[in-house]
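sry for the spam today, last one i promise. struct tokens for design, 57 residues
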């Protein structure tokens, strides 16, 4: 039996969708995920060290 998704027009749902949309717009840049991922793994890097770590920049 398939469950159907229902769309609600509640304010809380719209707020969550807008928050997700805003986050996706911020992270939409070409290198942002690579830079954030590298900083999460290594924690502290100087700018030139970061450039060396992230391939392709």
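last one done:
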């Amino acid at each position: 039996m398939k469950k159907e998704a229902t769309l609600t027009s509640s304010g809380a749902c719209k707020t969550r969708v807008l928050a997700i949309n805003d986050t996706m717009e911020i992270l939409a840049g070409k290198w942002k995920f690579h830079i954030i991922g590298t900083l999460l793994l290594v924690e502290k890097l100087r700018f030139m060290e970061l450039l060396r770590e992230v391939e392709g920049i």
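The mean pLDDT is 82. ok im logging off now
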